[in-house]
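Researcher: Structure for this, please.
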Amino acid sequence: MSTPTATTTTMQQVASDACDEAAIGDAASPAPFRPAPTTTGPGPSWDEHTLIAGTCPQVVDPAVGAGFALVSHVPTDQGPWVLQRIDIDRATTETGATFSVGSLTVAAGYLWISCGRSIAGDSTGPLLCQVDPSSLAVVRQIQLPRPSPPPQSSAPQRSVSNSYQLSVAQGPGATVWVGYDRTLVHIATGDGELLTSVPIASGTVASVSVDPALHSLYVALSYPTVAGQTVDAAVVEFDARTGQLLAATPETSEVTDSVAGGALTAVPGGVWMSFRTGMLGETLLLRQSDLAVVGPSVASLAGQPDGVFRWIMDASTIYGDGALFVVNENGVMACADPRLGVVRAQQHLAAAQGNSFELLAVDPTSGQVLATDGNGLQSITPPSSCRV
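Model: Predicted structure, token format:
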């Protein structure tokens, strides 16, 4: 298969956050393929069916035809976490190494797992494991540098987790960018060499994403200082080759309404950011080069309770096949022009109503969107109007 086009980048949480304990316990023997009812509602049909019931991968790599999850068999859901590979066509599961931290992502042809619990204040930074998705072998452990110290400022410092949350995105050539705490690191996938380390002036990294052309690295920050004042969130753009700072959102940007740094999905010409403002949330488009909010239209941000870009509690976005795909807890799934935010088609998905429905990948061959609804791995075939 060809390389997947998914650009969701934040390391996903453990599979047990999406599946119940019974489903996780059955993950070694997943149920066979069974079709689910086609979604209903106005407009073109979005054909949805279950690929594998009872297992919920955190990430999917269409290039190898498999999903992956870190699974805890401990009732308290505290780890250790066992890496599992779920073959999509055969619905079989293989087991790999065990890790102390339950987060992973897929980028540049490898799985990337936070493989060492590193407490803030330690003399070294976190460990990152590079894993072969076909064999599940650990290719190497990469020692990341200790984060930059917090700036000396009278502004209050927000508390952060006692372990580093890593966010990984594919970079230009055979590289990845890794963001954590107040640091960005550019890594060569061939030998694990640390190419560049970029300090973050203030705030902590919440999410990273690189545009499909691999030119711009976007970083969402939690609680940075902008123009002398502490804000809840900001987005910063860097050159994905050199790490040079290109742009940052001002203190007046709409993204500062986020309760913390949001989730990013980079697209041609910009980046989409999804963030909570409380019980509600928004998905906004920031333009490449100056990070001005340019979409969606004011009219598109209306429409509760059936809105696409303004939603209740949670939303997930992914880019692929020339479209931005959005699903949210309003129960709405939609595809939109990634540069403008104009909705091309939308449908009500009963499984997404009031549920954390996660988009995982877009298969570049079939155009299918792969996702988990908390009950299994789902395949959603968008209508032809979604394609360019």
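Researcher: Any notable elements?
Model: The chain has one domain: 15-147+164-386. The CA atoms of residues 308 and 332 lie 6 Å apart.
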